[in-house]
Amino acid sequence: DSGVTQTPKHLITATGQRVTLRCSPRSGDLSVYWYQQSLDQGLQFLIQYYNGEERAKGNILERFSAQQFPDLHSELNLSSLELGDSALYFCASSETGYEQYFGPGTRLTVT
Amino acid sequence: GESVGLHLPTLSVQEGDNSIINCAYSNSASDYFIWYKQESGKGPQFIIDIRSNMDKRQGQRVTVLLNKTVKHLSLQIAATQPGDSAPPSCSGNTGKLIFGQGTTLQVKP
Are the beta carbons of B91 and B34 closer than 8 angstroms? Predict the structure, then answer.
């Protein structure tokens, strides 16, 4: 158990809809990273937040957005969902910006 | 899309030896790379990451080298152990789809 929690575990929704994925970092970790992993593919870095502010941006679509709240939990918002958005979404947290601890992931299925 | 790919599908090393796993990328705008391992059905386990403003980064028993000139990334594992056999994968980003598939590291006792 990494200490990072993600909810929900599974999410099934229809195309065009909007969903919110939630991540609670390990206690004391200021950085949160979001990744997307499609079937049989590697991790795609989406975005990183540090203490509430966006720190780095990767392969994140304009339909996606994220934020980190004062209590350090983070949410990833996915809108106008398409079939291709079906994937595992992982968040990771880090205290030092060196080692990242991954959560169990949210499996999103868009039908 | 652009890709980050591993050179060798299988690498066989003796336990205790050092091992090197290579990864190549094609988009020179890539600015973040991560090495991780992931067992089937489980979440990723972070190994090490590196940003493009660095050439080298060291961790516990692992070192990542980034050669931006030839767009090459390598993971060096010191004193390879049987627990290292979970296939490491490399991944990067440029805003386009980039991924690296895991290679199998076979550690012989």
Answer: yes
**What is d(CA A62, CA A56) in angstroms, rounded to the nearest whole number?**
15
| Cα–Cα dist B50/B34, whole Å | 6
Q: Does B89 touch chain A (CB under 8 A)?
A: yes
| Residues of chain B found within 8 Å of residue A44, distances taken between Cβ atoms | 91, 93, 97-99
The pair of structure tokens assigned to B13 is: 């090393």
Which of B34, B36, B43 is opposite residue A104, by nearest beta carbon?
B43
Contact yes or no for B101 and A45 at CB 8 A: no
Q: Does A23 touch chain B (CB under 8 A)?
A: no
Q: Tokens 């996606």 label which residue?
A: A64
> Is the backbone peptide bond immediately before A8 cis, with ω within 30 degrees of 0?
yes
Residue A17 three-state SS:
coil
The pLDDT tens digits of the residues spanning A26-75 come to 999 999 999 998 876 678 889 999 999 998 888 789 999 999 999 999 99
Would residue B69 be called left, alpha or beta, if left means φ above 0 and alpha means ψ between -120 and 50 degrees?
A: alpha
Which mean pLDDT values do the consecutive 10-residue runs of chain B (109 residues) have? 50 79 78 82 86 91 92 87 76 47 61
